[in-house]
Design a protein that fits this description.
Layout lengths: L3 E4 L6 E6 L2 H12 L4 E3 L6 E5 L3 H11 L8 E3 L3 H4 L7 H10 L4 E6 L16 E5 L4 H10 L3 E2 L14 H8 L5 E4 L10 E6 L2 E6 L5 H8 L4 E2 L7 H8 L5 E2 L9 E5 L7 E2 L6 H16 L5 E4 L7 H14 L9
Parallel strand pairs: 2-9, 3-9, 5-7, 6-10, 11-12, 13-16, 14-15, 14-16
Antiparallel strand pairs: 1-2, 3-4, 4-8, 5-8, 6-7, 10-11
The structure holds threonylcarbamoyladenylate (TXA) and magnesium ion.
């Protein structure tokens, strides 16, 4: 049922802000399963939700938020049983999830080899960020979809996080067709992100679960990760391929494996139809395959420096420099 249709002044489009009931939950689940984006309330902030296993849908999140880089996203789950299919749980991770889920605590764990969370959602890393939200609507949508939901805050990159449905519409306009209206978020601040590295607990982002509460449960000091994954060195170390990478190539040189885009074809093509969303979804997997193809270097076709192309080029430039000291643009 359409409660409120907002005709936005300059975008001239209709965004459905729906009250939460069985019908709107079903509509949100359907939109997600078709690769759409949905504004979803959680107890922390409103999320811009996509099926985490659908690469093009996840690429849509980065496009809509206008994120200049591919930062890894949190994948939301119903609880530990779903989470265990995607992350490798240790007894320590179990203990933390049992204490804080559902709730505003995100666990970064080694990615389970059978996980189908798309590589773009975890930005090509071999870890995943998992959280079971406490908000009833978010939980119902998760149960309905039956798969993890990638959802960063539903605001344009660099702007304030949304804590009401109207904030989502104001920030993102018609980029989402549906926003479930759960009223004001109870917490209004993002979840705390901690990474489990063996027996160590590393605080990657301060948030709604206090460090004191975490220390109480895990019985050990938290290690600080200055800036967490946002730390450029960390990102670059993870991202660098083992072989050199050449940008803006029109054709491959000797012993180069060619990654094409659009009409510039190659051994791989990020998107033969020239779609930046499709290219973003294919990027990490294609680089990994090129890296192990046996070639001595990688050549990549030019990618237009617009929309998601900026984030793709950011990633490619880092890979090309293969260094750990270039600043992040995020
Ligand atoms: O409260 C929240 O956490 C909200 C609501 C919507 O649930 N979501 C949210 O998601 O803030 P997102 O995707 O914007 O948060 C991502 C945070 C970033 O700090 C990111 O660097 C970190 O989680 N992160 C995600 N995956 C990671 C990984 N594999 N390793 C390290 N950090 C990771
Ligand atoms: Mg955010």
């Amino acid at each position: 049922m359409l409660l409120e249709a907002l005709i936005l002044k300059d975008v001239r489009c209709v965004v459905q802000i729906l009250p939460i009931n069985d019908e709107s939950i079903a509509q949100a689940v359907e939109a997600l399963s078709e690769g759409g984006l949905v504004g979803l309330p959680t107890e922390t902030v409103y999320g811009l939700a996509a099926d985490a296993t659908d690469g093009e849908a996840v690429a849509g999140i980065f496009a809509v938020k206008n994120r200049p880089t591919f930062n890894p996203l949190i994948s939301h789950v119903t609880g530990r049983s779903m989470a265990r299919k995607h992350g490798r749980f240790t007894p320590l991770a179990e203990q933390l999830a049992e204490a804080f889920w559902p709730g505003p605590m995100t666990l970064v764990l080694p990615k389970h080899p059978d996980s189908d969370i798309h590589s773009l959602a975890s930005a090509g890393l071999n870890t995943v960020a998992l959280r079971a939200p406490a908000h009833a609507a978010a939980r119902q949508v998760l149960h309905g979809l039956g798969r993890p939901i990638a959802a960063p805050s539903a605001n344009p990159s660099g702007k304030l996080s949304p804590t009401r449905a109207a904030h989502v519409v104001h920030g993102l306009g018609d980029a989402v067709s549906i926003v479930l209206d759960g009223g004001a978020c109870a917490i209004g601040l993002e979840s705390t992100v901690i990474e489990i590295r063996g027996e160590r607990v590393v605080l990657l982002r301060e948030g709604a679960t206090t460090r004191e509460d975490i220390i109480d449960i895990c019985g050990r000091a938290l290690e600080e990760a200055s800036g967490g994954i946002k730390s450029p060195g960390q990102l670059l170390a993870h991202y660098a391929p083992d072989i050199p990478l050449r940008l803006n190539a029109e054709k491959p040189g000797n012993n180069e494996v060619m990654i094409g885009f659009g009409w510039v074809d190659g051994d791989f093509n990020l998107s033969s139809k020239g779609s930046l969303n499709e290219a973003a979804a294919a990027l990490f997997d294609t680089l990994a395959q090129a890296n192990t193809s046996g070639a001595s270097a990688i050549a990549v076709a030019p990618i237009p420096e617009k929309g998601l192309g900026r984030a793709i080029n950011d990633r490619l430039r880092r890979a090309a420099h293969n260094s750990t000291d270039k600043p992040s643009a995020s």
